[in-house]
Amino acid sequence: MTTASPHELAEHAHPRNLAHHFDTPAQQFAAGKLGIWLFLTTEVLLFSGLFCAYAVYRVNHPAIFEYAHLYLSKPLGATNTLVLIFSSFTMATAVWAAQTGRQKALVGLLAVTLLCGFVFMGIKFVEYKAKWEEGLLTGKWYRPEAPPEEAAIPKQDATQKAGAVPQQSTTVDARLLTGPMVLERSRTPAGAVGPTGISPQWLERGKPSETKWIAPEPYNVQTFFGIYFAMTGLHGVHVVAGMLVIGWVLLRARRGDFGPDYFSPVDFTGLYWHLVDLVWIFLFPLLYLIT
Amino acid sequence: MSHATLTEKQAEHHALAHVVPLRVLAAVFVALVLLTGVTVAVAGVDLGSMNLFVALGIAGVKATLVVLYFMHLRYDRPFNRIVFLACLLFVVIFIGGVLQDTRMYHPEIIPGQAPQMKDVHQPFGR
Fold first, then answer.
1. Do residue B29 and residue A85 have CB atoms under 8 angstroms apart?
2. Which of A100, B29, B41, B111 would be A89's cystine partner, CB 3.0–4.6 Å?
3. Is-above-0.90 flag for pTM?
C-alpha cells in the first residue's frame, strides 16, 4: 500500500456529510436553505395564479361563491385544517428533535406527520367522492342533485330578501308557500330564454308545514367548482409529494442519518410541508367560510 | 452513526442553525388552533363586506406565525427573509394589478350594443 499524498489526505479530512464542493457544514447548510427558500417562492407564485383566478371570479360573481360554498362541508374542512396544523407542529418538532439529536423522537414525529398526511388525503377523498356523486363538478359536469341544505331560507326571511326574487313570479310564489306542491328541478333555463312559467330554481322540499324557500341558484355555479377542484387539487398533489419526501426522510432517520451536525433533509422537507400548510390556511376560509 | 443529544443550553449555541425551543413550537401550535376556532366562529357572524377581510386577516396572522416560528424565518439569515418578502411583494403586485383591471370592463360601454352582457352582473337573471 502506497502512502497517501497530502492532497488525498486533505480531501478526505472532512465531516462525513459534507459534500466536496462546500468548505464547511455551515456553508453547505446555508446554501441548501437558500435553495429551498427559492423553490418555495416559485411554489407561492404558482399558487398565486390560482388565487388570482379566485379573486377575479369572486369580485365579478360574488353570488356564485356565496351560493356554491354551501355545498362544501365546513366540519370536514375545519377538521382538515386542524390535521394539517397538527402535522406542521409535529414536523417542526421533528426538526427540533433532529437538531438536538433525539433519534427516537425524530422517527416518531416524522411518522406522525406522515400519518396526518394520510388522514388529510382520506378526508379529501371523502369530500371529492361526495362531490362526484352529487354531480358537483365543473363545466358541463355540474349537474346537482339538489340545492345545498343551507340555501333554504325561512319564509319570513324570504320576503325580506325580496330583492333576489324575480318580480314576475310573485303570483306563483303564494301558491308555492301554501300548497303541498313539489316541483321537480328542471334543466330548462329560467325565464331568460323564454316564458317558461314557474322558475325551476324555486324548489320546495319537505312537508307542506315545513315549507321553506330555496334561494335561487345563480348562473354559472360550475365556475366555483372549477376553482375549487383546481385549488384543492393542486394543493392535494403537493400534500402527496410532501408525504413521499417525508417517507424518504423517515427511512433515512430510522437508519440514523440525522443529528445535530447534519439535519438538512429534515429541515428542508419541513419547510416545504409548512408551505403546504400555509396554502391551506388561506384555502380553508376562502372556499369553506364565505359569508 | 451516533449523534450526541444536545441539552437545552447546548442547543442555544447550535453550530448550524437556531434551535426553536419546544415550548415556543407548542405555543404557536395552540395559537394556530385557537385562531382556526376564531375564524370558524366569526364566519357565522354577518359583518357584511368585513367578513372577507377578517377571515383573510386571521389567515394572515396564522401564516405569519407559521413562517416565523415553524419555518424559522425569524432566526434565519436576512437574505432568506428578503427572498420570501420579495416573493410576497410580487404576489401582491400580481393579484392587485389584475383586480384593478378586472373591474374596468363595463357590461355596456355603448348602451344597447351588447344586450346579452347584462346577465354578467345580474346573477339571478332579470
1. yes
2. B29
3. no
